[in-house]
Specification:
The protein is mainly α. It has two domains: 49 residues, no CATH class; 39 residues. The protein is built from two helices and three strands. It has a three-stranded antiparallel sheet. The longest helix is centred in the C-terminal third of the chain and has 37 residues. Bound molecules: zinc ion. The site of zinc ion has 8 residues, from loops.
Length: 88
């Protein structure tokens, strides 16, 4: 069974619409008539597949986690630098 949560259009961020509700297989298209993605229909799995976007989101989450971990280390480094400066 396909995931029925439809992602927004990758080009214009409009909501998609079901191309033919009577069809057993779900095909979608962009609901904004001037968008190129409204000129064709896409299988729901293809529509929701965003491998580059998913990879970038994973990379962003990893970078954010590393930045937060680095921030946790920052007070120790600042304190060490302060002590080193005071000790001359
Ligand atoms: Zn669109």
């Amino acid at each position: 069974m396909s995931d029925l949560t439809l992602k927004l259009c990758p080009f214009c961020k409009s909501a998609p619409r079901i191309a033919d509700p009577s069809c057993m297989t779900l095909y979608v298209q962009c609901s904004f008539d001037e968008c190129p993605a409204s000129w064709a229909v896409f299988h729901i799995d293809k529509w929701n597949s965003r491998p580059v976007e998913d990879a970038l989101r994973a990379e962003l989450a990893d970078a954010t986690a590393r930045a937060e971990a680095a921030e946790d280390q920052l007070p120790d480094e600042v304190e060490l630098a302060r002590r080193a400066w005071q000790d001359g």
